[in-house]
Design goal:
The protein is mainly beta and about 425 residues long. The chain has a domain of about 210 residues: Collagenase (Catalytic Domain) (3-Layer(aba) Sandwich), CATH 3.40.390. It contains 4 helices and 26 strands. It has a 7-stranded mixed beta sheet, covered by helices on one side. Strands 19-18-21-24-23 form a 5-stranded antiparallel beta sheet, with no helix packed on it. Strands 13-10-17-15 form a 4-stranded mixed beta sheet. It is globular and about 60 Å long. About 50% of the residues are buried. The structure holds zinc ion. Zinc ion binds next to β1 and α3.
Length: about 425
């Protein structure tokens, strides 16, 4: 029997009531009990590009960007991807069970339009996967929203074509959504102009995305000695009957603070992160909607070709679900904030009951400091507060995604995993000092 899963990539901006669930990069499973992950059986995959026209982009450019978007994933893994041009325009229907043609299309056919229903302008694309009970993907279809505007030059109000396709290619290959905000596989996408910046950072795979594709298809290099694995489980610091299922576990470099990879725990609170580059990491856990957090952070070492086994102590977080979104340049959204090394920026955080007298932010990277004297409240309505604070990135800040810890008094109440992405795009909106 063929089963189906559908992903959509949605745009959210300036909402003060956004959903806040946490998901990992990896992987989609057949169902919760079997834990079988979705992946292609073959390491050679054929992508059929529909010969359909877009208003704003020529077929030649479209085809080149499809190839580029898939190529970024292939180069990080053992996958080989072939492309062919086809005249087929319609996505396979849910009932059909698929026709074996894995299509990328933007054609405004009624079948394709139907997929978007009422969400006509907020969803840029949908990927539909067909797979069997063993998790073997038999077909994947990507439909770009025929009514959305796609561009390649950052035009305000449009979706970036390459950022969209790179994300959808991740789904096509079997990846789910990531809990790392700055990852290409994060569930929300910005339109160009959000934060007065081009929304193109999803064109670039984050460390978490690369870890995800390695998980499914291997490292793409013969350099296995560069990697080890991390396995473990969550353990309650004090028995409180916490539900340890579906927690977000991630690792950050102990040296730079860069987010490396994240994953979701199973029903037993267990996790496994294969293909971790050899190094020393902080291993952090946050329950669904922040219901619990790491009771302590400590360093773990990943060594070549070995599995390191770790337990993470977690404790209940009565202040869960406090921070819901982030912002920049006077806007709040659920997407990462792109910054550049060597500059200072004013960033915004939105959430419930955030008292600037009691709340404190701290970046997990030593290269990024928070100026706590600048913490201020900008907005407070219906129990939602918007705070701002200035961050300073040292000139040596490495490219990558970085997280913040949020404290209320002395108590840790939230993590913002990978909410800042450094170095992928220019951000000229830095603070000037006089
Ligand atoms: Zn998605």
């Amino acid at each position: 029997m063929i089963r189906i899963i559908v992903f959509n990539f949605s745009f959210l901006l300036a909402g003060f009531a956004l959903a806040g669930s946490v998901f990992p990069y990896t992987p989609q499973s057949v169902n919760d009990s079997s834990g079988k992950v979705l992946r292609w059986d073959s390491k050679e995959i054929v992508v059929s590009i529909s010969n359909s026209e877009m208003d704003t982009i020529s077929y030649g450019v479209f085809e080149a960007i499809v190839k580029e978007s898939f190529g970024k994933w292939a180069i990080e893994s053992d996958l080989r991807i072939r492309f062919e041009q086809v005249s087929k325009t319609n996505v396979s229907t849910r009932k059909s069970g698929g026709d074996g043609v894995s299509l990328v299309t933007v054609a405004p056919t009624s079948e394709n339009l139907l997929l978007f229903g009422e969400r006509k302008t907020s969803v840029s694309a949908i990927t539909r996967l067909f797979f069997d009970a063993s998790g073997r993907i038999t077909e994947a279809d990507i439909v770009l929203n025929p009514t959305a505007r796609f561009t390649t030059d950052g035009s305000p109000g449009s979706f970036d074509l390459e950022a969209t396709l790179t994300h959808e290619a991740g789904h096509f290959l079997g990846l789910g959504h990531s809990g790392i905000v700055g990852a290409t596989m994060h569930r929300h996408q910005g339109k160009n102009g959000t934060f007065a910046l081009p929304a193109i950072y999803s064109r670039t795979l984050s460390s978490d995305d690369r870890a995800g594709i390695r998980f499914l298809y291997g490292s793409g290099t013969k350099l296995g000695e560069r990697f080890g694995s991390l396995e473990g489980r969550l353990v309650e610091a004090q028995p409180a009957g916490l539900d340890l299922t579906g927690a977000h576990v991630w690792i950050e470099s102990s040296v730079t603070g860069e987010v490396i990879a994240g994953i979701e725990t199973d029903k037993m609170g267990r996790f496994s992160i294969p293909w971790v580059p050899v190094g020393t990491y902080r291993l952090i856990a946050a329950g669904r909607n922040g219901a619990f957090l790491s009771a302590q952070e400590r360093d773990v070492v990943v060594v070549s070709r070995k599995i390191s086994r770790e337990e993470i102590l977690v404790g209940a977080n009565p202040r869960s679900e406090r921070i819901r979104s982030y912002g920049f340049n006077g806007q709040i959204a659920n997407i990462a904030i792109p910054l550049e090394a060597g500059h200072s920026y004013l960033i915004f955080v939105s959430g419930k009951d955030l008292d600037p007298e009691r709340i404190r932010f701290e970046c997990t990277s030593p290269a990024i400091s928070v100026d706590s004297l600048t913490l201020a409240r900008h907005y407070a309505r219906n129990g939602q507060d918007v705070l701002s604070f200035e961050v300073n990135l040292s000139p040596g800040t490495a490219n990558g995604e970085y997280s913040f810890r949020v404290y209320e008094g002395e108590k840790l109440i939230s993590y913002l995993p990978g909410v800042v992405t450094v170095g992928v795009i220019k951000n000229p909106w830095y603070s000037a000092l006089f």
